User: Fold this.
Amino acid sequence: MSPDHPQRRSEYTRPSQTTFWVRRIVALLVLAVLISLVVLIVRFAWSWMQAADDSQQRAKAQQSKEQLVTQPTACKMSNIAYKLEPEKAENQVGAGVNFKVVLRNTKGNQPCTMNGAIDKVGVKVITGEDTVWESWKCQGKVDTQPLLLGTGMEYNTTITWNGKIVDKCKAGDMAQAGTYQAIPVLNGKEITDGKEVFTLK
Assistant:
């Protein structure tokens, strides 16, 4: 070899055994950290989706419960209080009598529906043993009058008797002066403990 061209030394130095193992351990640690991060992300995503699904299920269950509670059902007549009261305790013969009617839903935890038509909600007027007038009879064709009563809710109306005696759907003479009783009637059933006394003069 010519003395003008000396041989170059290689600049590459092979890493020591210690450096090799350090690099390998660092690489393994980085890989372990990455795997742990992936696992945590997957677990978080799964937990989030599970929580969202549980929340939706609870919301649906609550909605179903609310619909079940608030959905009206047919009223039980035993839960309906019927209050009847003549507008005046003393009335003139031939002037007619107005009766204030109040229906109230007294029990249950949900609203109910009933028919409040005049052939279902009535008044019976008697004197002694004689029946003078029955408001719900002889009404002909009557349209249904739906009532929606929440717990504690009241329905108010007025039923008017013209003061005449009615026998077999035929109006007769005016009722005479005397003492009379008004008995509330609901779906054809008399509520005798709700009767009220009034007079004609």
Remarks:
- The longest strand covers residues 97-105.
- The mean pLDDT is 85.
